[in-house]
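Memo to structure team: turn this sequence into structure tokens by end of day. - J.P.
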Amino acid sequence: MIYAYECEECGAVKDEIRKVEDRNKCPKCDLCKISMKKLIGGHSVVGDMEPYYDENLQIGIKSRKHRERVMREQGVSEKIGKGWY
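Reply from structure team:
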């Protein structure tokens, strides 16, 4: 895992790869030589696709699941190629 640490003296921030069990063993600041504190970080959520307006379906699409639901409701198939008219 990657953990971020910050020096309370100078504000320097450092990322380190550590085992989960070693996450609270804070490194020393390269500049001040004092023990840094672990920062609490959040995770980022990445959507499965950017929202867009679908001209064919005539609706704003928010996600893949939303597009699938709208297509089912409109009786549309994603088949492309042979047999598609």
